[in-house]
Request: fold
Amino acid sequence: MRLLLICLAGAGGTGARYLIGVAAARWLGPEFPYGTLVVNVLGSFAIGLVQQSVTPEGLRLILTVGLLGGFTTYSAFSYETLKLMESGVWLVAALNVVATTALCLVGCGVGLELGRALLVGRAGG
Reply:
């Protein structure tokens, strides 16, 4: 049953990733992989939050392995960065690497802190 729930959550994460990618390209343009950047930052935030604040192990697995595993896109990030490099836009490729790395670390850190605050609130209330 756990495997089925993880797989279903993964499908939801994949669908969300697709919709965010389409929306980002429509709103911000296709010149930069904004959708992948947004998904990776949101996914990094969410994994920090879930790992810190969700206590039932089964639910944590469904959310991290399933939902967020289907949602985050480091394989797409790698491919898009290499394609930018192959196209000769080295500065844009470097910006993608720096922005993704920095913002995902910040997102995960903020998620961890929010998760800690939620646990403190839960213990105090």
In short: The radius of gyration is 16 Å.
